[in-house]
Request: fold
Amino acid sequence: MTEEKTAAKLRQEELFLKKENGYDKMDETSLAAMDGYCEGYKQFLNDAKTEREAVKAAISLAEKEGFVPFRRGMDLKAGDRIYVSNRGKALMLAVIGARPLDEGINVGAAHIDSPRLDLKPCPLFEDGGFSLLKTHYYGGIRKYQWLSVPLELRGTVIRGDGVPVEVSLGGEPGDPFLVIPDLLPHLAGAQSEKPLGKAVDPEALNLFLGSQPYPDTEVSDRLKLAALDLLNRKYGITEKDFLSAELCAVPAYPACDVGLDRSMIGAYGQDDRVCGYAALKGLFDARTPEKTAVCVLADKEEIGSMGVGGMQSQAFDTFIDDLCGCLGAHLRTCFENSFCLSADVNAGYDPNFADVYDKRNSCFINQGITLCKYTGSRGKSGASDASAEAMGHIRGILDRADVLWNVSELGKIEAGGGGTVALHMANRNIDTVDAGVPVLGMHAPFEVTGKLDCYMMYLAMKAVYGS
Ligand code: MN
Ligand code: MN
Reply:
């Protein structure tokens, strides 16, 4: 009797796809490595609250690892480590491999932009005793989540004289924060009757900048003047300079551990810096990979991957074409034989909102990275839908490297949907698979990930590049 059960159990182990908690497979050494990795990741999150800051932080890390700026036509050989900053808002790095580029490259592509509140081109006004800044949200935010949250102002202004000015209000210890106060419950009767998506008017997402008027009772607009006076003294800017600026409000608090057991990380902007950091760190471990390993940290994914820094931009093709030029290969042949892991987060199963998930096709925290054959919405609309062969390729790589992984879709069919940069890579004739870290509260000002999954994402990227 016992023997029969054992046989069935063995048969089950042989045949079933297991959805297991990864902690059962982690020894002391890997747990320590995971913790060390996550400390570095949290620091990266604190240093990189915008795509510009992410590029700066990534370059600073890469240069310590021996990466040098790429120059068109430079002599390249296996093991060389190079990078190109695309206008300071996106980054491409490569470790040259031993094999010819015509045999293809291995790409890790993540995005470093995150949902936030951008300032409008004419943002500053005064009303009700306050100076305020009008915002235009960037990416898919749930507007109510951004109220009564401490915010910082970050970005770059190109002044009238052409001089760039870095703005980081809230970035230094002791700095003041900005906020958009929420409506008090006592007066929220009518608002509470509205559908959640309509409850907050996007034109009412105005940042409170100040309340002390300019000390001269003879002039009008004294609050606006006082605010501009302070901005001018601190940054040398005038109202016109908002036109040539990229300023945004981002959450003011640093990344932290979540849970009594500290097994999770809570922070702003983990979509998709959690994969961006993994794609970067994984590349650092590539010494002389067989095929050239390329890491792309793209901008503008949250608004459709458009523009010069987005994954639809020719900047990527130009960079790889330049490498092909240096090493005597053809771009199209290279792409045809290449593989890309589109590294982006997925919707981790949340028991509080169970009804939007198909539990049998969801990713769960602490099961490792999640492989996603297709994203999109409804009938896979907008998905590049990786082939069985591409899925077979990636699972082989991950299994050989002992990376913990599972499989999922983004929620129930017709519950919503979403996309990544995968289709733009696939459109280049590069076999592309989506994989990433499960996130809870995605696009909220405070997103939650599992440390084990963050670490597995790094191991996955490392395995994709090869060493
Ligand atoms: Mn994303
Ligand atoms: Mn996103």
Notes: Residues 117-251 form a domain with the Aminopeptidase i, Domain 2 fold (CATH 2.30.250.10). The mean pLDDT is 96. The radius of gyration is 24 Å.
